[in-house]
Amino acid sequence: MPDTAIAEARAKAATTGGNILQVRNLEAWYGESHILHGINFDVNAGEVVTLLGRNGAGKTTTLKSIMGVIGKRTGSVRFNNEEIIRATSDRIARMGIAFCPEERGIFASLDVRENLMLPPIVRAGGLSLDQIFELFPNLKERLSSQGTKLSGGEQQMLAIARILRTGASFLMLDEPTEGLAPVIIQQIGHTIARLKKEGFTILLVEQNFRFASTVADRYYVVEHGKIIDGFSNAELAANMDKLHAYLGV
Amino acid sequence: MQALYAQLLVGLINGSFYALLSLGLAVIFGMLNIINFAHGALYMMGAFVAYFLLNNDYLSIGYWPALIIAPIVVGIFGMILERTMLQWLTGLDHLYGLLLTFGMALIIQGVFQNYFGSSGLPYAIPDQLKGGMNLGFMFLPIYRGWVVVFSLVVCLATWFLIEKTQLGAYLRAATENPTLVRAFGINVPRMITLTYGLGVGLAALAGVLSAPINQVRPLMGADLIIVVFAVVVIGGMGSIMGSIITGFALGVIEGLTKYFYPEASNTVVFVLMVLVLLVKPTGLTGRAA
What we know:
The complex is a heterodimer.
Chain A: H1 3-16, E1 19-30, E2 33-44, E3 48-52, H2 59-67, E4 72-79, E5 82-83, H3 89-94, E6 97-100, H4 112-117, H5 129-135, H6 137-141, H7 152-164, E7 170-174, H8 182-197, E8 201-205, H9 209-215, E9 218-223, E10 226-232, H10 240-247
Parallel strand pairs in A: 3-8, 3-9, 6-7, 7-8
Antiparallel strand pairs in A: 1-2, 1-4, 4-5, 9-10
Helix pairs in contact in A: 8-9
Chain B: H1 2-32, H2 39-55, H3 63-84, H4 94-116, E1 132-134, E2 139-141, H5 142-164, H6 166-176, H7 178-183, H8 188-214, H9 220-235, H10 240-260, H11 268-279
Antiparallel strand pairs in B: 1-2
């Protein structure tokens, strides 16, 4: 199937809005430290869902637990109706989940092209290099530069761009706007909006609530390793006071 | 002058073994973060496997097939060691890996010494590589020339694999952040096993190449490995090209020292190591952690 047809099929599947990720009673530990205490939430196909919460609430650990990069985790994580709580992270990635870490994870020993081409294609339907350069024109000009010589914004673009190639339709982005200039944040916002339009499902972790409100369909609030509240974008205005209290802003 | 050229050739040959061995060490250290003290013992095993293949009544496999089969056999043995023992050291201090591989080296060498004693076993040069060439300024034994050229080709091929291919990009990335590379869908534990097999296979290849020159002895690796570690430290731990260049260069420097000041020939490498550590502790081409 040509890539455009796959993208259309993905967008069509997204409009049906079936449940793509179910997290139930997810608990996770770093060594002896118990971080997640029973996380429960769902993500539907084609949605942008944002996990909000203060520093240390357990948002990043939730993403890492779904991705299988936390040593000890229990509970249930079902992706496309398949249980993945005991799967290794490489298998989870090959099932179609892609993870963009908070620290971006750009490799210093690789140039931009090598960083971009690093994640293997896990299924058809990923963005082509031309489509990626259309989204992030800066990267095309810096292909032979060392990955870590890019600016913070360019590194973030590279970190997002490389997972778009893989064909994964479920993207987990951990604080993609952290430490970036407003103009770059705006560009990343446009990118997420466009990815949503193309049928990608996105689970976003953000502290920048103002940014999240421009792209998210639904929100979950994480505190002390639990989901304590959840609402849709339509209910946002009615929940603003509560949200300010949760986030301490 | 003939003596100078002869020592240069000896230096290049030793440099070939240094380069192949230090390259394997650099690959293993870069990927597994393990200082592989068993490397010398595995080099010796390469020579012994070639010896068995030649002298077994049923096999009688000569030099050329042994050049391929022995590194594969020893590489598989290395992968078994990695799967059964070394993999459990992930995330621990370097010291544990060093002690474990040092123990492995003593056991492997002890077993071979128990069965074969300490004296050398002869390994014949293949007919195609016997004899020599008069270059005018020196006489070049063909086998020794072959060792230098073949080692250089293997070293450059390994460098190309690691620095210029997609597989090499996986290896370099996994050296920096194996957790993230695995989260991209790459089976990193399997890659680590194969990398250890590759590093060990290079050591075994050096052992096969060395067998006709140095004879096959249980302690042939123990004699060499300390110098090879000095080469790796000078080149920079984990640096592929650094290991190759330093291996050949130090072989030549050692050869020249034998000509100009023989008394220092056994220590020159270590003196250079001390100087490099004082001036650039990460090695000539190594990067700071």
